[in-house]
Amino acid sequence: CTIGARPVDLHISGLEQLGATIKLEEGYVKASVDGRLKGAHIVMDKVSVGATVTIMCAATLAEGTTIIENAAREPEIVDTANFLITLGAKISGQGTDRIVIEGVERLGGGVYRVLPDRI
Fold first, then answer.
1. Model-level pTM?
2. Where is the Enolpyruvate transferase domain (predicted)?
3. Using one digit for the tens of pLDDT, what is the confidence trace for 54-113?
4. What's the fold here for domain 9-102?
5. What gap in Å lies between CA 12 and CA 54, rounded to an integer?
6. Which DSSP state fits 38?
7. pLDDT in tens, 50-68
8. What distance in Å separates the CA atoms of residue 87 and residue 97, rounded to the nearest whole number?
């Protein structure tokens, strides 16, 4: 696992497709939205675990349905989805390259045991 600078273009693109306004200022990414994010059909240019998690988390509270195509399939994606489901999210397809998220108004609390680190 390489640690260091990593591109965030897929994260930014996914959030913009959900309706966020993204600005890069002084080395920081600033995101904002009027009201709620909106569900979208997102086809990722390349597979990315981090971007899949970012989009999945954001889409959980978006208005409408979000479909992520070419999503990462790693166990951490399944684990993140299962955690969000524990909190009240509506997610299906985790573990495949097509994840469907039905946005909800709010998430609640919960107890969840995360997957152990594979490294």
1. 0.91
2. 1-119
3. 999 999 999 999 999 999 999 999 999 999 999 999 999 999 999 999 999 999 999 999
4. UDP-n-acetylglucosamine1-carboxyvinyl-transferase; Chain (3.65.10)
5. 9
6. B
7. 999 999 999 999 999 999 9
8. 23
Closest C-alpha to 71, from 94, 92, 88: 94
Would you kindly state where each structural domain of the chain is located, as residue ranges?
9-102
How far is it, in rounded angstroms, from Cα 56 to Cα 95? 13
Q: Which residues are catalytic?
A: 1
Tokens 């309706």 belong to 19
Contacts of 91-96 with C-beta under 8 Å, sequence gap 24+, read 91/56, 91/60, 96/71
Across-strand partners of 98?
69
Cβ–Cβ under 8 Å, residues 96 and 71 = yes
> For residue 40, how many other CB atoms are within 10 A of its CB?
19
| Separation in Å, CA 82 to CA 35, 36, 106 | 26, 23, 16
List the beta bridge partners of residue 95: none
Residue 91 φ then ψ, to 5°: -130, 140
